[in-house]
Amino acid sequence: MRDLPDPDDDTYPALVRGTTSLPGLDRHLVACRACPRLVAWREEVATTKRAAYRDETYWARPVPGFGDPQARVVVVGLAPAAHGANRTGRMFTGDRSGDVLFAALHRAGLADQATSSHVDDGLTLTGVRVTSPVHCAPPDNRPTPAERRRCAPYLDHELALVSPTARVLVVLGAFGWQATLEALRGQGWAVPVPRPRFAHGTEVAVTHPGGRRDLTLLGCYHVSQQNTFTGRLTPAMLDDVLARAVELAAT
Fold this sequence. Notes:
There is one protein chain. This protein has about 250 residues and is of the alpha/beta class. The chain is about 35% helix and about 10% strand. Strand 5 and strand 6 (about 215-220) form a beta hairpin. It is globular and about 50 Å long. The two termini are about 25 Å apart. The relative contact order is 0.15.
């Protein structure tokens, strides 16, 4: 596991050395205010709101990962949506991207229902966890390189905490692909050189430090409206990637 950043170094989130559980990591994450631009944006959105949500109280904090703590499949996205997870407080919950993702997870047998509208909707994930490289909603869905670097320790440590059970990482989009490979490389996983480029359907195996087992990365186009509305990513394409993930996770 990569050594966690010094809590007194304001270049990074105030992670605590020795955090050994996902709940402990999440407690530190939701209190993070390391990126002034992202803090200002997530809170501005929660004040102005969309008309459809004007009577709701927005979460407006960093959004932690969600799902099975013993996951064999981990889905890595990009960042919370301003009026989706930034509103509801749960990854991919309350927006159209989440509608696509959770419907597919349900078809794959990884979710007990096909919709994810709010944190108390009863949704349970089995064998899968959903997370992202950036945990605050960024303006225009574009975090800066500095914001990505500040948030990187959270993904690093989350992947380290789930690595005893994880077998497959389904990575949605090129941004998440690069962040995930960097996190694994930093933890000592044998990432191929040159570093594999993102493409939908790409499958890459990386070897655990010590060579005890492999972890497989599967590339998938992001479930954004830009991709799903244009047909760049179809339900069948997403189903194929998740079916492959389930197959690999069972080995």
